[in-house]
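User: Teach me something about this protein's shape.
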Amino acid sequence: MHKGLKRALGAMLIAVTLYSLLGFLILPGIALRVINQQLSQLSTVPARLERVQLNPFSLELSLWGLHLGEADKAQLGFAQLYADLQLDSLWSGALHLAKIELNGAKVELLFSKDGQLNLAQLFKLPERPATPEPAEPSEPFPLRIERIVLAAGAVHFEDLRPSEPIEFVYDSLDLSLSNLSTLPDDNAELSLQATGPNGGKVEWQGTLSLSPISSSGHLQLSDGKLKGIWPYVRDALPLDLQEGILNLATDYQLSLAGGTQLQLSNLSLALAPFAIKAPDGRPLVKLAELNVSETSLDLVKQQVVVGKIRSQGLETWAAREANGQLDWQTLFAKPEAPAPAASQTADASANNASSAPAKPWQVLLKDVQLRGYQLHLADRGVSPEVKVEVGPLNLDLQNFDSLNQSPFDLKLDTGVGKLGKLALSGQVNLNPVSAKLQASTQNLDLRLAQAYINPFIRLELRSGLLSSELAVDLQGTAPLAFNVSGDTRINQLHTLDTLKSRDFLKWRQLHLQGLDYRHGDSLAIKAITLEQPYTRFIINEDRSTNVSDLLIPQPAAPASPAAAKSAAGKPLGIVIGGITLKDGSANFADLSLRPDFATAIQQLNGQIGRIDSRQPKPAKVAIQGKVDRYAPATINGSLNPFDPLASLDMAVSFKQVELTTLTPYSGKFAGYRIRKGRLNIDLHYQIKQGQLTAENKVLLEQLELGEQVDSPDAVDLPIRLAIALLKDTEGKIDIQLPISGDLNNPQFSVMPIVWQTLRNLVLRAAQAPFKFIGGLVSGGDEVNMDRVPFSAGSSELDPQARGTLDTLASALKERPVLRLEVQGVSAQASDGPLLAEQRLQREYQSTYYKILQRRGDQVPADASSLDVPEDEKMVMLEGIYRARLKQQPPADWRELDDELRADKLRAGVLDSWGRSDLLLRQLSQARAASIKQYLVDNGGLPDQRIYLLDVAIGQSDTDGRIASALQLGTE
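Assistant: First, the predicted structure itself:
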């Protein structure tokens, strides 16, 4: 071998050996030392690299065991980093790497409470100049990497900035990039998968270009639990998440060349389940399932196209608070920001004036289907609180355009309450607002309106169901213009007068046929049919009605210019083709008549003719009915309901009405049931230009009252006495009450002479019944017959009392239905001393009678005929004292002389008997018995007509006499 060649080979071998030593041993060792030194100088936490390995021939570099952070908790690190550099990097003009592989990478991303990122604090970075020089744009460093692999990576994220810390982990992170390059128009193939121990899988596949920056591909999130990121939402919106799982998938195209361009296509989103509640724990939304598919987004066009939305099982709660706001508004309300300074306001105004209005986003909803929604609604702005359950609600929406370039189709059906149903279908336009809808309702519960009518009328809605089929044509909202046409039915309406707790208005069905309402112009109804209507109408004594009693006065609101303009417009035209009554009934009472008239009417059938507010012609009225099934009742005539004071001619007639059917009214207002009787009444009312002429004829036949009824509303008059006085010889009461006057004068009231005479007669009988019947006999009106006076301590009738009783007996014979009630009266102040003295004398006689019997002396048949010697009385007095008072005389009385001691004993006995209720009661009974005995024995009255009442304790007259009271009643 040539010597030169040998030297060359030797030199080459030495060079290779030195190159190998340098590449395999020296450079990795130096690099490891330099790297660790730099890490120790620049890192703020413990940092080290365990090993560096270099293959100088294949240019493969491996770094092992990078660890930044405490020994037990690394913040940044990896198990191995492998890079394969290609030799063509020397002549290709670009750094060429065949492969970069990173194994076991771990990253801790930690945001502290003050917003500091831990990675930004790992190294001591040089300070940046306060005013850095602007960098000139330059071409990106030429780089081409055939494959990048990230295997078994892990990311731990924690953010302490929200009110509740956020933390999630992806412990299985794999990334693959093929052909990544900074050269123009080179695209890299990208594949990424990341999963965490608590669910949530991210998959990303696509292409990536760095010059210019652009990417396209497919991104998918599976089983993403919203709880992990919810504190971000809660700090912006005060909502607590109960549960929520999100699945998201989309194709995308992103380009940053010439601005940000982003397009999403085939976007699909699934949210199931989902539930949130308010901070106070009340539920707000529960969602079973939400699916959005066939959706696209174009950032440049600012357009979102949603192909399909499918959702079911949503349940939500909402309420209007007392201040008129929704509870959701209150929940999301933000504190008011301080008012900006004047200069700031001016600057902002200038900026707003100079800036062009932003282009609005367009949202297109092609096909939306919501199923099984349930809404729990409440209105706390009224009392009592109104609660409405809406659902299950189903909604279909097609071709919705937020920019309103075309109308959209709407279809909705839902339940309302327990029985109600509501359905809407048609087309809606947003700008200008217009709609053509078909609306139908079934059995909507009208009781929901109760709280809203309470401030205006004292009426309770017991039941009522609304059903309708309507066509709604909305032409605009400024001004409001719409038409409604169709049929409406209100079934089973029942209202209650809350003042009297009685039925006011009800019916089986109200049917409005051919309804045509044109807002602000007219209301036309082809026909109104009322089935089984019932109403209660009462004219009060002051000629007000029960209807006016129910209305609650409202404060006068100040008239606004708009209201004045509306009032000046033409009145609403109302046309009703006809009203039909079927099997109606009514309760009618006129308390302005005397006697009060009240009756119930059944089997009301009839017609009311055409009514037109713009053609003021009286409508014919022809209604027939019956009272208590047999007594006919008729209402005939004509009236103009829109101007009743201009023209009215109505005749109402009731014949042979059995008064027993009116017992509830007689019991309530008269305090008696009706035993028998019949009523005939004819009312004829005529009004011409406000002038009333009325004839009221009332005839009562064979009226007899029954037992008394305990009623707090009964009139305080002797009804039986009044009936007895008013009856003629045939047992009839005939009353005619003509009325006339000017209805335009609210003070007018003309009482007929017949009624005035009858009223005076009844009042005179009520106020002085004995004086009234005294007029029936000669000289009787000069005698006070309601009391019989007695002398103190006596039950004997004196001549004056006997004369009074004689006159009373004659008057009672003229009214055989009257009865007399006698009440014996005594007065302690006047009768007591005399009764005590009489009782003491009887006790003397009784005691002396027994003494004579024990002696064996001859005694009379009755002790009352004895005369007791005075000396004997002194002996008996002390025994009487002990027996009456049941006690011994006081010891100090023994020191008194006999006469004074006897006076004290006698005074004690008389005082005890003078206060005896028994003696007073016996005297009262004796006086009443004397009166009855005289009227029966001397007056010739049957004893059955005289009743003895329970006795009473009263006061004596000024002359010292005590009068027993007499009262009149009826059989």
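Now, about its shape. The chain has five domains: 21-121+142-211, 241-328+361-409, 432-531, 535-549+572-763, 768-828+921-970. The chain has a mean pLDDT of 82. If you'd like, I can walk through any region in more detail.
User: That's plenty for now, thanks!
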